[in-house]
Amino acid sequence: MIRIKNGTIVNEGRKIKADIIIDNDRIKEIIPEGIGNNYDADSFGIVINAEGAMVLPGIIDSHVHFREPGLTHKADMQSESRAAIYGGVTSVFEMPNTKPQTTTIEALQEKQALAREKMHVNYAFFPGATNDNLDELRQLDIHTVPGIKLFMGSSTGNMLVDREEALDGVFALAKEMGLPLMAHCEDTGIINHNMARVKEELGVDDPPIQYHPYIRSEEACYESSALGARLARKHGTQFHIAHITTARELSLLGGNITGEATVAHLLFSKEDYDQKGALIKCNPAIKTLNDRDALRLALTIHNSQFTVHSSQLPNDQTTKRPNDQTSKLFTIGTDHAPHTLEEKQGGCQRAMSGMPMIQFSLVSMLSLVDKEVLTIERLVELMAHNPATLFGVSQRGFIRKGYKADLVIVRKDAPWTVTKDCIQSKCQWSPVEGKTFQWHVAQTLVNGQIAYDAGKFNPNIRGEQIKFRGI
Prior knowledge:
Elements: E1 2-11, E2 14-23, E3 26-32, E4 46-49, E5 54-57, E6 59-64, H1 77-86, E7 89-94, H2 105-118, E8 122-125, H3 134-137, E9 148-151, H4 164-177, E10 181-184, H5 188-202, H6 212-215, H7 218-235, E11 239-241, E12 257-262, H8 263-267, H9 273-276, H10 289-298, E13 331-333, H11 361-370, H12 376-391, E14 407-417, E15 436-446, E16 449-453, E17 456-457
Parallel strand pairs: 1-4, 1-5, 6-7, 7-8, 9-10, 10-11, 11-12, 12-13
Antiparallel strand pairs: 1-2, 2-3, 5-14, 14-15, 15-16, 16-17
């Protein structure tokens, strides 16, 4: 058994000083300070002294691109799940735009088989919708996938769903199956028009990166998100808008429509393109300082109700449901999307979009806690409790007796700076390189095993396939 002693647990909206007893892969007991227990020192194989530290549920990143199979020159399951461990992330939901794309049952099963051999964290994979794969999606086992991923804007391959009939069918199917629909919302027609106009006005083939938020504009995001919101309300589909970037889109949220913010869009604004260049190029684009500050405010503002279909919730998960909370944004993910440095060269046309963020997502958000953008209790809701609740994760995302022992212990002490030699992602760069943090991840536990301990990584740890909706 493992004992985590003297730590301050942050869980379900409160902080308590307590010990956690772990037996095999489960939390056996939570013993508040001052409460006696029947354990003696010989009961434990390992004791972790968390005095002065915060003990959080392991972070669930519901939006990552690990690039395997087919794009492993950028990243792979082993390298990126290692980076996750270093960052206190214990579970990930991976996106379907790999090669081959995860748009068939066969491709999904092949990914799951790879993950069993390679993933250091717990894992699940989004199947992707296309204009013509509804019959394939109907065969999904709803207990092994978090939901369906929909690209309502530019995407690789054939995953752009742009036919009205097909879109309507995807929303109807997701409702029928009781699955959340998570969507990338950008209007391709508006983007293409903006790109052509900027190229013509500047007389260049590859506009400077500073034009990225004007090409992938507020209008492009809002029009696509608004279409998705209309379809979600028509069908009653649980609709989760990924990586919201504009203040205007926040007005669409409420009821069965929830929103995700990504760490990059909470950290950066268009003023940062001058220094960071294409390193912070992503889709949707990082936009204005006003948009960034609106997203930050929406992490905590209370003026809208959310609901989640009961069929999506595990039988034992009855507290902290989305309809008990009223903040605008419901989850924080990373959209972790590594590219090589060579692929990030160029401007709006040539530089690839996406950045590696998973290793530094938790410490970045803790830095916003220090700036009083949100509380640490709210951070835990957005990065652990709410992803578990929204997608119906079974027995993870909370520190509860009988739940899987996915935990992260964080400390705030001597400042440290992100340098190239500490980056674990295969691409070996980060947009926060050079940034100094005071918080650091001290230990990460996955299924009751110590995967990371004060700079030491256990490469033998393997995560489990996440189960959903009550099993």
